[in-house]
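Notes to self after the call with IL:
- keep both proteins in one doc
- input above output, always
- annotate only the second one for now

Protein 1:
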Amino acid sequence: MASAGVLQLIIFLYLLDNETSTVVLFSAGVGCAIEFWKVTKAMTVSIDWSRGIPLPKFEDKAGGHDLFAYYTL
């Protein structure tokens, strides 16, 4: 899921570099923002500074819900 957001960002930056029309840039920018919003809804995103550089850390929010579904069966 996070890779889709990164791919959308790469496409948006490519379009921005090639001086694409404003309508296409707006569409790609909104799509990129939606992809990153979906990542924050499905995962907890934090920044890990333990190695001296900022690295994103993703934790799945649905883990507890899966266990609940398995135990109720």
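Protein 2 (the one to annotate):
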Amino acid sequence: MILICALIASAGLSRTRDNIQNQLSELVKQKPRNTEDDNLISEMTRLEAVLQVSRDDLVRHAVVGNRIFLLLLSRLFFTERV
């Protein structure tokens, strides 16, 4: 039941997103952009790429850090003590 409600809500959100994207594309067609708009769009695109790379690096470092931590724990608890 919950899954059905989630699917219905998702479909409604998808329709809303599509409508907004269509309205935005119509506005873009009506108003010519100037170079400042182009500069802002390219800067936004560049920053989004930098953000994604940073997120990927963070995840990768977290995974490596967790592996090192587990290795140290296993050495600490599972080595023979004399």
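Annotation: The radius of gyration is 24 Å. The chain is about 90% helix and 0% strand.
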